[in-house]
Amino acid sequence: MQKAPIISFLAICGLAATTAACERKTEPAATAKPAIPAAAPVDPTSLWLIEVVDGGKAVSSLRICADQSVQAAFARPAPEVNGQPCVRVGEAVETGDTYSVRCRIDDQLYRVGSSVEGDREKDFKVDMAVTRQDKKGPNFEQVRHYQRLGACPTGWVIGDSAAPGAAKIVNTLTGATRGAAAAP
Hints:
This protein is mainly beta. 11% of the residues lie in helices and 46% in strands.
């Protein structure tokens, strides 16, 4: 089994952005209701550290400013193989802490699966696997450790990401890049 960082952050966050847009609901106009004091708004946007783990040690890391949609996609890999996105075939199956879906690149089918261990609100690991269905090609496994660090840095927006100490920030949702005064 080959271990490689083939699952792109852009693919994961792109899936999150698409999912969020599809989940918007509209409600019919309602009659006037008595005013109920609103709870103080909670900012669900936060900075996360994502580490690729191999042999129990972090081999690469990235910090990303994520809202709830991006956070939900952390456990739903949307892989790229050799730079080509794997296009979903059929519906995904989610049961508790597992996720599984089939996808296709050209004429090749892959099975993509993940399982989650830990507290998804602050500190958890995701084991991911991408398996060729014809069993002729390489299979890939990856473990990622996700840790909520706190508030996003000043000036960062949802999707902004950078490796610790990096000189540039990349927005994984839009692809835009800019210099960083000091990446967190």
